[in-house]
Amino acid sequence: MSGSKPNHKLPGKPARQLLFSEALHQKRPTPMTTETYPSSPSTQPVTTSDKEQSTTMQRILHKITAVGRRIEGIDAPISSLTLETKSMRVDIASFQTRVTGLEHRMGSLETQMATSQDRDQDLLYLKSKLTDLEDRSRRDNIHLLGIPENEEGTDIQAFLSSTLPKLTSLNFDPPLEF
């Protein structure tokens, strides 16, 4: 078998790649095997016995088992981290929903605030117009309290000239002009 691959065929089974554990339990028909490895620095054949191979395989199996235990020891924290990650994803999704809702509310409030500011400006404008109209209406009008309605008759100027000095107890010299 110089320079060839080892035969991984079990008697009576189709050719397939053997699992490592199957290879450990496989018995070789000859007690001594002589193989030449191309990567070997010398071209001398390497001889090993079944006992040496079995011991080597057991050591390798023991190391693989130890690695498997380490992996199982790592698997528990990884599972815990996976659960925490899933929980965090749920929390993040909840936060995203809440933020989206808050953004919609914020947009609505900004629209209401802009509308309110426009109404405030309109109200201030109307208030100034009302004040101006009230001031203009007071300039030419005098409101006299305590005088019955329609007492003045048809000549308002004569009525005021005679009534105002009596009501105010003032003497108007020169007489009032209207």
What does the secondary structure layout of this molecule look like, with pairings?
Blueprint: H1 20-25, E1 32-35, E2 46-49, H2 50-139, H3 156-168
Antiparallel strand pairs: 1-2
Q: What is Rg?
A: 56 Å
State the low-pLDDT regions, or none: 1-18
Question: What's the number of helices?
Answer: 3
Q: Could you tell me the mean pLDDT?
A: 78
Please report which band the strand proportion falls in: under 5%, 5-15%, 15-25%, 25-35%, 35-45% or over 45%.
Answer: under 5%
- Tell me about the largest β-sheet: 2 strands, antiparallel
The run of helices and strands is: HEEHH
Main sheet: strand order: 1-2
Number of strands: 2
The SS-based structural class is: mainly alpha
The percent of residues in helical segments reads: 55-70%
Shape: rod-shaped
Termini gap: 142 Å
Biased composition (Low complexity): 36-48
Region (Disordered): 1-56
InterPro entries: Transposase_22
Biased composition (Basic residues): 1-11
